[in-house]
Design goal:
954 residues; 33 strands; alpha+beta
Length: 954
Amino acid sequence: MPPSEPMLAFLSNGGALGARIHAHDWNAHPLGPISAWPAALRTTLGIVLGSSFPTFLAWGPRLDLFYNDAYLPLLGNKSADALGRPLAEVWDEVWESVGAYAQRVLAGESFFFENYGATLERHGYREQAWFTFSYSPLRDDQGVVCGLLCTAIEVSDKVRALARHKEAEEHLALSLEASGNIGTWSYDLDTAATYVDERFARLFQVDAALAREGTELVRFTDMIHAQDRPAVLAAIDRAILTETLYDVEYRIPQRSGVDVWVNARGKVFANPETGGRRFAGIAVDVTERKHAEQARIESERQALAASLRADESARRLDVLLEAAPVGIIYVDSQGRLLRANAANRQIWGDYPLSASVDEYGEWKGWWPAGTPRAGRRLEIPEWPIARVLRGEDLVASVIEIEPFGEPGTRRTILIRTAAIRDRDGKVQGAVAANMDISAQVAAERAMMESEAKFRLIADAIPQLAWSADAEGANDYLNARWSEFTGMPLERIGSNGWGDVIHPDDLAALLATWRDSLVLGEPYEIEHRLLHHGGEYRWMLNRALPLRDQNGKAIRWMGTLTDIHDKKAGEEELRAQARRKDEFLAMLAHELRNPLAPISNAAQLLSMATLDPQRVRQSSEVIIRQVRHMTSLVDDLLDVSRVTRGLVELERERVDLKAVVASAVEQARPLIEARGHALDLHMASKRCWVHGDRIRLVQVIVNLLGNAAKYTPQGGSIALSLETGETDVTIAVRDNGIGIDRAILPQVFELFTQAERTPDRSQGGLGLGLALVRSLVQLHGGRVAAHSDGAGRGSTFTVTLPTVDGGAGGAAAEAQTAAPAAAGARRRILVVDDNVDAALSLAEVLRSLGHSVATAHDSHDALAQAAQAWPDVFILDIGLPDIDGYALARRLRDAAAKRADRRGATLLALTGYGQAHDRVLAKSAGFDHHFVKPVDLAPLVEIIERAPSRELRQA
């Protein structure tokens, strides 16, 4: 399946090698995963894989080898593990000769070799082979040479064909001289080693020294002509098996192409002393006898052979021309086209046979982009062949052409032209080699486009990107640097970046950078960078090294990420967590304080010897501390509802001066208890706001209570009210302990408390200011705090928008009905699954003169109500069988079905005190909702107002 990721698209048309590269695990390779390969490597490799010519590229300092399917036959057995290995390791047997050229290509040179001979080991043995190939440098996105590209064609058969005629003549002479030559051989049947003499080895073209030392029989039998080999092997097996005479004739193909005929004879010999057996005999070269029959025919053909040799030479030249991977043209001294090969026709198309240089105007060529004459058509004298014919020895030019018969098509070709001179140096003609380099030019153009894309991407990312060489010298900054710092890249490039690093961070940054350079480890540090706004912002600076084949860092690529807001957020989260922990510790302290006297009072009440005075004192302690705990819980619930936006204000036109007066009245007991002097300064005219009167009183009471608690005994508190054109400002000032400047910005946050003394003499949970800010904001106002520091007092101001003056808000309507007569008693049923809670409340209500019964589940309550219908039901909500809401509905239904149509007052008494709990109670039919622990006074007031049939005195 072809690769589907965009990063692997270049492998999609790569054939078997493309699939193999895709399937290979490159993570352990120095190049790393394919996604990390340079764009230039991926682009060029895609071109190589798609080429039909045997082509490879060698990338990086190690010259790691990549090749296409057409190159596999040239590798032979080496193809199994050649992919990705250094070129020097794959072709180590020839590296001493070609390695120098490879290094020169890495320096920027290009080479073209024709009929280059080399001794290779690619099929398990050494063999001579010849190639025509070219070396070209490959450049990365910065134009630096990072590898080489080679297109190679093996021409071994053609070179051998050229030499075959000469070898045939030489071997014929040697055969005549060696007529009657006899060699010996011996095959040890116990060790399977074969030994031959020098003459026998020469017949089989085997190294004589190796043959004398012993080698495998198969090395010789494999050299026998394929048509004769089965009969020879059968004869050997038969002679060994039956120990009969071995006598056979066969041919041995020679490198010259002429078979040598051999008559081999032998038998099995046994050593009477050791018992060892060997198969031995002689081999006689009978080629002369075999050829004698052809001698007459051969002599008659000798005259013809001379002309055939001339024709063969011409044909060899034609074959060489046709096999050449580049276009070749021969012209005479006038420029007349004499000969051209197929490759040239592929490049130029169906071109005319120009008779002279003057006809070169038919050929269309233009100077390519990047040259001084770019885009201008070549004139006749500018063609390389014309220049050579005028006397220049060697001319090389790159031009763009339009092939004949293909209008509008452009190709980029490299033309190398050389003069053909006679012995006297006179120009007899010229030869030109045309190489189509369109793909290379396109690759270079793609590399430049890739570099442009890289710079565009680098400038588009929000990070500040940079790179440095192996010595640490900066050589690239993206545009974000200039945008962030407000400085030109020329100023902060190279080593100028040190000017924008915070002075306190520069030493640590440089030390870390030096360590990374020395150790070659990834670089990472957080530091501050100068912003164009004038502030220093925290940055995360990270860089990774690009390594060579030895693992040495040769380049660094890095980015800076703005983490200023993240660090500030983390610090704020830590501060909030710290304030929360302090608040929870304080809350635990505040809740434990009232539990201690409650526990003590409860233990006193359990003592049978306690007198009535002690009972009353203990009860007062419990009541007082329960009210305190209820106040703490109410504060927590209140601030939770307000800060979460669950409170709905009952807005009306409110006289703020009346609100201040009510607040002062509520806070005065605490102020007087601590011996403070209260100074009031009120505006002369009335101040009207649109708000919730109760909540506004709560705001001012909290500010006054805060001032009273945090001002030492005998302090001074001032409250002022000033009016403006569109708003009114209330200020509460004290000369108390003040607020530290460090905590002042967070004084209105939840869980924020100034440092308390161990005795916790001020008391409270510190939620008041958070509640103040939320309530003021709900009224569309704002709140602020000011202090000159610890021990210098504090000022809190509340600013609210005013409304037009006019009649004040309507007087509060009387909401309480006249209480029942003092002697009127009510029949009450208390329903609570907490037996202690039910019985204790019943005892309290009986002590007030009421008739009280208790039930601990809903079914018992319904049964008692059916027998004696109460005036008042007090119901817990969390009952085990039927909850309080369902029980209330049943009681309402029962009341409606009574003959006297007499109803009852339903009171909910529960631990659920949220706003939605009150709504649920109202919808279930409850008349009132009380939260445990209940404040007895309002409960008794509601009971005494409940309708009742007068009970007779018992």
